[in-house]
């Protein structure tokens, strides 16, 4: 029997954007599964504090997905902590940043978003 029955695979993935969106510290969230993380999702969350104050968490437009380097996660710190825990897996850029043409915008803008995210993640290694 597994130590934690909520995990059904041998490896876990880390989704710091999801933790941030829920108000959970992504560093604290990853520690429970740190030794089993095989993939980090390179996706972040931006929270518009003014929109939260005017409409609350049940209002619209207070958050959006962002590429790494444009949101809440300190990627250098997160990747460093993951590496200290033995992470040697993949960082997969998951592009849903509307500022860079997602979902069906200009292809050049989407490619630019991927390039900027990759540059930021490389600099965070």
Label this structure with key terms.
125 residues; two-stranded antiparallel sheet; 5 strands; 38% helix; globular
Describe the structure.
- The protein contains 5 helices and 5 strands; from the N terminus they run βααββαβαβα.
- The longest helix is centred in the C-terminal third of the chain and has 18 residues, at 107-124.
- The radius of gyration is 16 Å and the shape is globular.
- Strands 1-2-5 form a 3-stranded parallel sheet, covered by helices on one side. A two-stranded antiparallel sheet has the order 3-4.
- The chain is α/β, with parallel strands linked by helices.
> What is the terminal separation in angstroms?
35 Å
What is the number of beta strands?
Answer: 5
Oligomer: single chain
Number of helices: 5
Segments where pLDDT lies below 50 for 5+ residues? Answer: 4-9
Mean pLDDT: 86
Largest sheet: 3 strands, parallel
Structural class: alpha/beta
Level of helix content? 25-40%
Instruction: Indicate the radius of gyration in whole angstroms.
Output: 16 Å
- Strand/helix succession: EHHEEHEHEH
The side-by-side strand order for the widest beta sheet comes to: 1-2-5
**Shape estimate:** globular
Fraction of residues in β-strands: 15-25%
